[in-house]
Amino acid sequence: MKNTCFISGLKHMDCDLCVEKRAFYRLVSGLHASINVHLSARYLLKETWMDKVWGHNVSEFQKRFDALLTKGEGPRRLKNLYFIYLIELRAISKVLPYFERPEFVLYTGNRSNDMTTKLLLVDILYAAKSFPLHFDENALFAGVGKEAEQLKMEFRHHFRNISKIMDCVGCFKCRLWGKLQTQGLGTALKILFSERQIANLPDRELSQGFHLKRQEIVALFNAFGRISTSVKELETFRALLQKIARE
Known about the structure:
Blueprint: H1 19-41, E1 43-47, E2 52-55, H2 58-65, H3 73-94, H4 96-100, H5 111-129, H6 146-166, H7 172-193, H8 195-199, H9 214-246
Antiparallel strand pairs: 1-2
């Protein structure tokens, strides 16, 4: 597949890479870390002919994130998980004006629930906006004119390539969630790249200017839900590790 060599430096990020490319590597690493946290938290602990027991596998978590077992890579992976969390949190706070417009309607299949669902969504976005430690995306793509636009195009291109790679994954559930999270992250970046268009949205005619497709909206919030759950699971693993240390 062409131009996927952009990812080749993921494990060994050189200090001379530009901020944008380092950010790309960190996003991919954070996405991978989120998947590994879910795998460790929802692990098949025991299987009999009658039942299956799923739960937290501390050994599996340590194998993937412990500083000694990963030769220092584990803590960096977890930092990248928080990085992608802040990126997606920033995006959903930035997209508030798009969903807040009177013309935007969430079609739930039940007209009486459409407005209630929209109000709940807007409440969530306001909560995200009130978060005090937002990522400052102004540090990214701060180049001048064509240079900044070229970097944005590279980001979009490489995320499309990652989504295509997901098609090769054998496990259906892994492929589904991998593509969903990749598209969700891609949508988050689309929002951050489109701040001016969002700020200048017309009051009417949703087709004008910035626009999100239905599948992009679904992917955005599902992906953020998965990343948020991963961050929450870290608290559980931290408590389990502290309990083991005391015993």
